[in-house]
Design brief:
Layout lengths: L1 H25 L4 H12 L10 H22 L2 H6 L1 H27 L2 H12 L3 H10 L6 H27 L7 H22 L1 H11 L3 H21 L4 H13 L4 H25 L3 H6 L1 H25 L4 H10 L5 H12 L7 H32 L23 E4 L3 H13 L3 E5 L2 H9 L4 E3 L5 H6 L7 E4 L4 H14 L4 E6 L5 H7 L3 E4 H16 L4 H20 L9 H10 L1 E5 L11 H4 L1 H5 L2 E7 L2 E4 L12 E5 L2 H11 L9
Parallel strand pairs: 1-2, 1-4, 2-3, 4-5, 5-6
Antiparallel strand pairs: 7-10, 8-9, 8-10
Length: 664
């Protein structure tokens, strides 16, 4: 009957959570907050509908283990080294600054050193799950500030592990002196064992498991590695979380890591939902109602401590001020690992008193506010920086002085794939250009390649002026951030009314606002990708090339013309389209080793078999117009064929035939 009773508790938890999370999703609040609210409502301080809270907490511990396991899976020394400037320097500065400021304030209020430092640990960690979900929904993960935020979150997640080891010592229950040294030696030994397992045992185990092609066995082995390593670390006096993190690291560098993540995520999400429900059950609603001013003050205090603490390191390293402010605001909430760490503190006997309830209440509020904070961050950054207009926003503008002033040039914003290709073409054609980039590593690469590249924030007027935008002819923007793109277009149009602005954006919905701000051409990746897909599908079915181009032209004309109301130059005229359809021309590559390879046009009997005519043949750099019937084709030749659509389709099939099906 006890099992049936617990099953009833689970039904109540998930039924309630489904309704709450659905409602929260409709108003754009993260599901994590919905689970916390569900726990508050169902727990002993709410409706008291859950009877077996202890079992829920045990399942929640499995959720914590799986959470740390997936963090370990995503942890890569290579990735961390690539982001070392942000993840190590700025991340370390942010965590240290937040802990120190919070600990000093806590000590001034309570006079207790250990609990004050512990509260600093709790405040220093931000929510990876909530922030990444919001950034993903806003298509900002690949933006410059999105990469900064990811770097800081990775460093914070790693810091959670040593914080868990230190917490019992801060509570006065952990080892001291030689005991601490012994604990560190055990941790180091475990790390060495993990490294050895990564190189020797784990790859072989996973290889033989995968070879069975048994999905159930694969999942069982992965869970065994995760839970088994966690149990070993717990038995040696360390934490379950540390073991799960190390287990994830063992698999992270293997070729199976992505599949492991895919298999583990459903388990992690289910158990994590119980974890956040169990955290919500601990929140005393009566305490919150009786201390509303204190809860509000604590929430504002978290924002005021965390936002500057995350922004100041970027200021100190002379990164662009606007993005530093956006990054600080985006990381100003309490994270899921703070709840895990809080649980470790309680089990270690940390004396927090009313601080724990205050922490829970303010944490839920900060997490619920995160989507709105991130949405308002760009406007807030612009407003803040208006009052600090003399703040340096570019640490490498002086480097750009070595490039002479130019005019009638192209300004490229973003030195990613599109920016590099554009720069290469402009250099080859002799068109002058300047490049603005926010990624220091990309700037270094550009300087090594002798590119006229500058480190700077293209949303700032004086930075655009520095690259001679008032004298430029074209501005090409590829910022991967809708908010930044709009700001750049607005500022650039104000600087140079005659500038031709071309913007590459991700979504079709951005065309109208960018055009309204002054963009001449907006090229959405979403729409262009859809065109490429249907063009390739039609090619697979041997649809004539001119028909495909006609459909592409129609699609572009309809969408761009409708959304922008300006000519695109891409769509063919009605006369040209009709002429091409009547003419019917298609290019077909002669496959090496096929029926056409080494055969003559007459030998293939193209005209008699299909009714189409070979108009020309291109062989590498040579072009043979109106080839004779005895012209011998070779593999790799491109044949230009004319005829109606059906004739072209048949000609394509004939030329692409293999030797086995060669027509006699």
């Amino acid at each position: 009957m006890e099992q049936v009773g617990f099953l009833g508790d689970l039904i109540i938890i998930f039924s309630w959570s489904v309704v709450v999370v659905y409602f929260f999703d409709r108003i754009k609040i993260p599901s994590m907050v919905g689970f916390l609210v569900s726990g508050v409502a169902l727990g002993p301080h709410g409706l008291s509908l859950i009877r077996d809270i202890r079992t829920v907490e045990q399942l929640a511990e499995i959720g914590v283990v799986l959470l740390l396991f997936t963090v370990g899976l995503e942890f890569s020394m290579t990735k961390l080294f690539r982001m070392r400037d942000v993840a190590l320097k700025a991340g370390a500065a942010q965590v240290l600054l937040t802990v120190c400021v919070t600990a000093v304030i806590g000590w001034l209020i309570t006079g207790k050193t250990g609990p004050s430092i512990f509260v600093g640990f709790l405040v220093a960690l931000s929510s990876t799950a909530v922030v990444l979900k919001v950034l993903s929904n806003r298509a900002e993960i690949n933006s410059v500030h999105g990469q900064w935020i990811v770097g800081l979150l990775i460093f914070q997640d790693i810091c959670a592990v040593p914080m868990m080891l230190v917490t019992p010592m801060l509570a006065g229950r952990g080892p001291a002196g030689i005991g601490v040294l012994f604990l560190l030696l055990k941790a180091a030994l475990l790390l060495l064992l993990v490294v050895a397992a990564m190189e020797i045992a784990v790859p072989r185990i996973l290889f033989h498991t995968v070879n069975t092609r048994n999905r159930e066995l694969f999942i069982m082995v992965v869970l065994l590695l995760c839970l088994g390593t966690a149990w070993i670390t717990f038995e040696t006096g360390l934490s379950l979380a540390l073991g799960a993190f190390l287990a994830g690291m063992m698999i992270a560098d293997s070729e199976y890591s992505h599949q492991v993540i895919a298999e583990i995520l459903p388990f992690r999400d289910i158990f994590n939902s119980l974890f956040f429900v169990s955290v919500g059950m601990l929140l005393d609603t009566r305490y919150v109602l009786e201390n509303i001013p204190l809860v509000v003050a604590a929430t504002l205090g978290i924002f005021l401590i965390k936002a500057p603490s995350a922004a100041v390191p970027f200021f100190a390293f002379k990164y662009p001020a606007r993005l530093a402010v956006i990054t600080g605001i985006s990381l100003s909430q309490i994270g899921e690992f703070s709840f895990v760490l809080a649980g470790v503190g309680l089990k270690s006997g940390m004396e927090l008193g009313g601080l724990y309830q205050l922490f829970l209440a303010s944490s839920v509020i900060t997490m619920a506010a995160t989507p709105f904070m991130i949405a308002l961050a760009p406007k807030a950054a612009n407003g803040i920086l208006r009052h600090f207009s003399r703040v340096r926003t570019d640490r490498a503008l002086e480097d750009g002085e070595k490039y002479p002033p130019i005019r009638d040039h192209v300004v490229i914003v973003g030195y990613g794939l599109n920016g590099r290709r554009l720069a290469k073409v402009l250099k080859a054609t002799g068109i002058p250009y300047n490049i603005l980039e926010m990624n220091p590593a990309a700037v270094r690469d550009g300087i090594k390649s002798d590119e006229p590249i500058h480190f700077g924030d293209a949303t700032r007027e004086h930075v655009l002026t520095h690259v001679s935008l008032p004298l430029a002819r074209v501005l090409a923007v590829g910022a991967s951030d809708p908010t930044v793109e709009r700001r750049i277009v607005s500022v650039a149009r104000g600087i140079n009314p005659n500038l031709h602005i071309i913007v590459r954006t991700r979504y079709v919905r951005e065309i109208e606002p960018l055009t309204a701000l002054g963009a001449n051409e907006v090229i959405p990746e979403e729409f262009e990708t859809s065109i490429e897909i249907f063009a390739h599908v039609l090619q697979t079915y041997d649809v004539p090339y001119n028909v495909i181009m006609d459909e592409v032209g129609k699609a572009r004309h309809q969408h761009y013309g409708m959304l922008r109301g300006v000519p695109t130059g891409r769509a063919e005229s009605a006369f040209s389209a009709a002429l091409l359809n009547e003419l019917g021309m298609q290019t077909i590559e002669v496959p090496a080793g096929g029926a056409a390879d080494g055969n003559t046009i007459n030998g293939l009997n193209i005209r008699a078999e299909t009714g189409a005519t070979v108009l020309a043949v291109q062989r590498r750099s040579e072009f043979f117009a109106n080839p004779q019937a005895d012209f011998k084709l070779a593999g790799g030749d491109v044949a230009y064929i004319v005829g109606n659509p059906e004739q072209l389709k048949e000609a394509g099939r004939l030329i692409k035939k293999s030797r086995r099906t060669k027509t006699n």
